[in-house]
Amino acid sequence: xxxxxxFDALVAPAETPGSAWRSLxxxxxxxxxxxxxxxxxDIDGVLHRRGGRPxxxxxxxxxxxxxxxxxxxxxxxxxxxxxxxxxxxxxxxPETACYGCLRNFRNQRYHDELSRxxxxxxxxxxxxxxxxxx
Length: 134
What we know:
Order of helices and strands: EHEEHHH
Structural class: alpha+beta
Helix content: 25-40%
Mean pLDDT: 88
Number of strands: 3
Number of helices: 4
Strand content: 15-25%
Largest sheet: 3 strands, antiparallel
Radius of gyration: 14 Å
Strand order of the largest sheet: 1-3-2
Distance between the termini: 16 Å
């Protein structure tokens, strides 16, 4: 199971730094875990580029898949709301992240580049837009 997310240039211009995309990825994963009661150890995500535009792929890490990516896809509104709450409701500085918002053991190699403020900026830009699924 996997879910590919791409974003319109109005939401996230092409020059948006990779660290912001990585921060958004972890905000969405934490939001999915919170909103849909999915064990955070059962889902993960990666960044990719298609046609020069960055995107995010969320996927199940359960052998054979557990349907979590499909569950996330059908409840994106709840996932984005929970991600916004997670990134916006933390007491750490917006230029960084902590274990209360975006950090976890699995993403420790990226801790220095994670920024809850960067994730929050993209999440807020998406806020009033319609989420479409193919």
